[in-house]
Amino acid sequence: MEMMDLFSIFTGAGDKLLAALLSFFSSAIAVVMAASFIFTCTFAEISIYIGLGIGPFLLVLSMLRIFKDMVGGWLKFMITAGLYKVCAAAALVLMESIFEGTAAAVQAAIGSGGNGFSFPRTGAMFALVVLSVIGLMTSLKIGDLAKAIVSGGGGGIDASSLGGSIKVKPNSGGGGKGGK
What we know:
By secondary structure, the chain is mainly alpha-helical. It is built from four helices and no strands.
């Protein structure tokens, strides 16, 4: 009887220690994620101010033929800098809604654990760590997303990194059998 109580104390302490470690890792990742969002928004504002400062000079220089390409580049730069803030805000709202929905589930799972091992409590903390990692990865891809919107790319996904090249053979014939 005493051995069973001792076993339940150790398993309960291990579960609480694991939950505390997972909570620490999740919090650390969330702090890095928040810093990344703040950096992205601050970088976007600084970029916009620099672009607005250079803009009048480029508009005057656009009258010279040699500087016309620079004005187009400046306009792309300004659009990309503005989209940094838009993409960061959209990603932040998305991650906030996901975390709010998960927070209630985590609190319910933590409250459901007793003194012994609680799979819902540990599973909820693992889910929180995974969501924090997803949020961090999302915050790091904001710049690629903004650039892809301006350039018409694929959201920062490079098809060459998928392993192998995609080759398309053009149709060489008239559309029928044996069309040469």
